[in-house]
Amino acid sequence: MMHLPVHLMITLSPMLLVGCVALLLGWTVIGLAGLLRPRSVVLAGRVLFPLGALLGFALAVLAGASLLGGGIERLVLPVGLPGLPAHLRLDPLSSVFLVLLGAVSGGISLFAGGYFRAGEGAAPGLLCLQYHLFLASMGLVLLADDAYSFLVAWEAMALSSYFLVTTQHRLAEIRRAGFLYLLMAHVGAICLLLAFGVLQGGSGLFTFAAMRAAHLSAGWAAAAFLLALLGFGAKAGLVPLHVWLPEAHPAAPSPVSALMSGVMLKTAVYGVLRVGLDLLGHPVWWWGLAPLTLGLLTIVYGALFAAVQTDMKRLLAYSSVENIGIAFTGVGLTMVFAGSGMPAVAALALLATLYHCLNHSFMKSLLFLGTGAVLHATGERNLGRLGGLIHRMPWVAWLTLIGTLAIAGLPPLNGFVSEWLLLQSFLFADGLPHALVNLLIPMGAALVALGAALAGYVMVKFYGIIFLGQPREASLVHAHDCGWLERIGLLWLALGCVLLGLFPLQVIGALGAVTTQLVGTVVPQASPHWWLLAPVPGRPVSYGPVVFLTATLAVVLMTALIVRLTYRQRVRRVPAWDCGFGTLTARMQDTAEGFGQPIRHIFQPFFEIERELPAPADRTPRYRIAIAERIWKLLYEPLARAVERLANTAARVQQGRISTYLLYSFATLLVLLAVAMAS
Amino acid sequence: MTHLTLGQQLLDSCAALLLLLSFAMLSQRRVVTLVNLYAMQGAVLTAATLLLAWRTGEGHLYLSAALTLGLKVALLPWLLHRLIRRLGVYWDTEPLLNVSGTMLVGLVIVVFSFALAQPITLLASTATRSAVGIAVSVVLLAFLMMITRRKAMSQVVGFLSMENGVFFGAMSASYGMPMVVELGVALDVLVGVLVLGVFFFQIRERFESLDLHHLEALKEHE
Questions:
Q1: pLDDT digits (tens, 9 = 90+) for B26-52
Q2: Residue at A556 is within a domain
Q3: Does the structure's ipTM exceed the value 0.90?
Q4: Which among A648, A666, A677 has CB closest to B116?
Q5: How many domains, in total, are found in chain A?
Q6: Nearest C-alpha of chain A: how many angstroms from B50?
């Protein structure tokens, strides 16, 4: 069911779409070119990856033009199944995610050009192929307009990223992480397959256009949506399907982690929006409760686990889980409001979702790349062996700081805008015509706020322990800053965080086409000023990031000036006060474990903690703590045991005796003959 | 009761003989005799083919008869006898189901086959009224033999006998398969026996016996 307003015209010449497809093909060609000299770091790193970045930026520009134009372009390619050629479509929803893909992957590709080196796992040329195929398949996922192309692209995305995750496949631990990822990806893909099977509604037509036109009964439509939510949730890392994220992200090379966390997870959000709001037409309001509840759970869960991690990439992975929770909360709210006949608020929630996806892409990629640079410089992922890197790696440290502040949700950076918009949309829940729900939903706002606060806590820990203080290991003195390509990549992503934060009005204007397409209206702008964001007419809420930045800068400058004027003495450097202890070493700084201790203590029931404390008389004291997720014991292990039992039962068929096997065929033959006789 | 011509009566006799030979094979434990019975089955099949060729005047059936004679009466039994001598397997061990039990199951199968063939029989030409039922019986009885035997050698004979049943069925229902198919099947059978011969030597070398229960150890363990 399509509810497009009249002004969303369908353009006849798909110029932009053809351009996008050409760019995706370009990525494939670049990937294949990597195989010409697979061992050459110069070819892959200095030529192909930057070239791929250029294509990414071009894609962002093309998709951006399509988004501003607000039109829909269609294309049917003469490839695919007989009777079902590949249908492609470029509409505002896919455009906004294509902009995200192009712009963010551009930064990551630049960084990757300087990052991949010889001798680390797979050959650079091979990585180049897998990396660009990954990009192209993500692009195709966003453009696909029939279930077959969508699923083929979806699986290509899963497979290419699997090979990227297992780049260092000689380590058993990494192969294990890769397997877990592949397993979850397939569970998700099966759900999607079933969802599309339901969506075609018995028509046997698998184009999205046919699915929009199909009239499903209420039960089947709900089943299709829930299946799609499960399928996309497994890819996005929605609790309890998130278990692969904290394993796969540390295993993957950093640019790959950045790409997966920054872009691939967003394709899942895209998928849910596509199915829930576009293919199914008008959502029923209570469908939205599922993503809303799971999203809220995911926010708190992810933030809590991020707070107690000691591996910097695991920490970021859990932070991604939290942010995906925010996006799904937004999706849930959108559907609840849209289904309850409140399109204006639904548009606000949708806007917050899309905005958060964009923001998270930029900031999480930036952070993952920052950890990559640290990892290359020090060889350490463990927070307990880092520290004081801001002196050795100023570029990485300062650019990462921008990402850290942004993801902590501090104004005037981008993270604040989307969380603020989401909280605003929560406040409209009292207008919902459903008793109880309109009381419970505002409590979700409290959970979002808790998540945001915890995220701030996590980021202080992340940044403080890696970059601030004193180096905890002597070897950190030799850490070096990253190369120029890597710097450009980081700079671009940091710039994205700043611009998205400073100019929300312009971004919201550009996203208007999407909200029009999906919920039929745009978010109004109640303020006449270009610098003041006031999305809620009639309520005194507004936010002016530029004003905020100017004021902050003014205060800082004034303070510096006043200090300068009143305190004329030179700066003295003295040893830190040691409380009379005697010798202070860098090991005495607060550790990641120590920083997470209060959270661990307060939320103890959430964690499965295994701790070894040294005895008081121990000569070589060792303290060890392992924090696992209860979900493994509560959900996954019983599930695995059940599957194994079932498999063993089925294995009884295999006797090893030829007579038995012959008897099987004999019995089958007899039964078939009897059936043939009866009919 | 319609009056049957001499040719039809002869053909029915051939069919009955085939069925009888199948039962004989089912009860026979000496491997050498089993091969001889197979050769006799081949001979009866040749006779039936010749009869049909004479009655219908289809030229290619003569060729088919010659092929059957050469392959199933001469070449394959000779190959099998040579294998038996070389491998020294003259007896099969006690079958999984005793002989009288097997015969009873065989009877049930024959009844089932005739019931199955009835609609086809009504459609078929007068030449081959009972033949289809018997062909199906021969196939199923051979299958039953494969199930109940322990030695690989007897199973090969069962497999070959099954092919006889298929051949007889095709011949009686539609005056033989196209020549190309028939040649292909003949070649398949020949190659199959040769390959299995090599396979037997390998099995014996590995397990020092041709008893198939040794192969049970090959299944995947938990």
A1: 888 888 899 999 999 999 999 998 988
A2: no
A3: no
A4: A677
A5: 3
A6: 30
